[in-house]
Each structure stands twice: as C-alpha cells, then as structure tokens.
C-alpha cells in the first residue's frame, strides 16, 4: 500500500495528463488551431525560444549550448585559453 500525497495534487496531475494525451492524439493542424485558440487568452503569448535539453538554458539563435558543448576536461582551475581565428582582422 502507498499513500497518495494529496487528493488535490492528484486531480491536477490527472487533468494535465488527460490534456497531454488529448494533444498527443491531435494532428499537427488541429494542434496549431488549438494553440491559436489558446492564444486568444491575453495572458498568454507565443514565445519562440530554444532551450538546451541538458541544462535548460535559453540558447542563442543557432548553434549548440555554450555551456554543455564545452569539453568536460575543461575545469575551472585550468587556464582558459581561447583559440579563435582572427581572419576577419
Ligand atoms: Zn546546456
């Protein structure tokens, strides 16, 4: 037997799961319509951003995460050497 933490939390989780499953069953077109419909809520806005799947930082326009793409061997106590071609200068 296990105890459920709180009935209210369980209810919210189930409702969210139901919504998620509903979204998963929709086609892309239906999902897009759903999003547009939800966006009529003035409290919501569509934010297009990329986040690193590892550290969840907001990423710049393109490229890899500047934090997670570093070599693991680069530790703080080592001297940091930036090597970059200066061709444009
Ligand atoms: Zn990252």
Could you please describe the fold and organization of this structure?
There is one protein chain. By secondary structure, the chain is mainly α. It has a domain at 1-58. Helices cover 33% and strands 0% of the residues. The protein starts with 6 loop residues before the first helix and ends in a 51-residue tail after the last helix. The mean pLDDT is 74.
What are the salient characteristics of this protein?
89 residues, mainly alpha, 2 helices, 0% strand, flat, binds zinc ion
Summarize the structure.
The protein has helices at residues 7-24, 28-38. The chain has 89 residues and is mainly α. The model has no long low-confidence stretch (mean pLDDT 74).
Secondary structure layout:
Blueprint: H1 7-24, H2 28-38
Zinc ion is lined by residues 52, 54-55, 57, 65, 67-68.
